[in-house]
Specification:
- The chain is of the alpha+beta class.
- The chain folds into three domains: about 10-50; about 60-155, no CATH class; about 160-200, no CATH class.
- About 35% of the residues lie in helices and about 15% in strands.
- The protein has nine helices and eight strands.
- The strands form three sheets. A four-stranded antiparallel sheet has the order 1-2-3-4. The protein has a two-stranded antiparallel sheet with strand order 5-6.
- A hairpin with a 4-residue loop joins strand 3 (about 30-35) and strand 4 (about 40-45).
- The longest helix has 15 residues, at about 75-90.
- It is elongated, with a radius of gyration of 25 Å.
Length: about 220
């Protein structure tokens, strides 16, 4: 591969985004972006001979990943999505950790290798990211798809649909109709209840009724 044709190429964790002042330097350098977002100037020869394959942020952040876990050729978007899965599930300082790893969501061991992830999911198109089909499930083949942001927003927990007696509503609408807290319905979904039981089972108000009866007698 020629050192003058590296823009858009991937070298380990580096994605070559631009050439840097090619006419003013003796040795060709490129602006390279890591999947984590950091950018650095890297010599073309170091990219080509493998001396520079990223700043090893992946192994530093996720030491449980095997060596060369991310060595695969794919689009920037697919690599970034794969990287973000681990941040959500295992990086406690990540903004959304509480909704993912903090809530018990994990990445299947097969996907610890980027190549396995690509073999199962295929490469992604621009604007597509990994979406869990069930917002209560893990990152694994049977529960993941490539989806647009709009599709993912429709699939959020608050947009979960339930059907009962021929009527289909959002979970939040069922909660409002039945006067049952949304959290109660979410917990029933996560516990694997059948849809008719999720909706038709009243809240256990035994303690509240007992207290009311006791107060009335006294």
């Amino acid at each position: 591969m020629s050192a003058s044709n590296l823009v858009g190429q991937t070298f380990g964790e580096w994605i070559v985004v631009a050439e840097h002042d090619a006419e003013k330097q003796r040795r060709r350098r490129y602006v390279c972006s890591c999947v984590c977002g950091e950018e650095r100037l890297v010599l073309a020869q170091n990219l080509l001979n493998g001396r520079s394959a990223g700043h090893q942020c992946l192994n530093k952040t996720f030491p449980f990943l095997p060596r060369n876990a991310s060595k695969a050729i794919c689009s920037t978007h697919a690599r970034h999505s794969w990287y973000q899965m681990f941040h959500r599930c295992y990086n406690k300082s990540y903004d959304a950790y509480d909704r993912y790893g903090g809530a018990g969501v994990t990445v299947c061991e097969r996907w610890f290798y980027l190549q396995n992830f690509l073999d199962d999911m295929g490469d992604s198109a621009i604007g597509m990211t990994v979406d869990r089909i069930s917002p209560y499930g893990n990152y694994e083949l049977d529960n993941c798809r490539w989806a647009t942001r709009a599709e993912q927003n429709r699939n959020k927990k608050k947009h979960h649909f339930l059907s009962y007696n021929g009527e289909r509503k959002l979970l939040v609408d069922w909660a409002r109709t039945l006067n049952i807290p949304q959290g109660t319905l979410y917990n029933r979904v996560r516990a694997g209840w059948k849809e008719k039981d999720i909706i038709s089972t009243p809240i256990n108000t035994g303690k509240r009724n007992k207290k009311a009866r006791t107060h009335a007698v006294s």
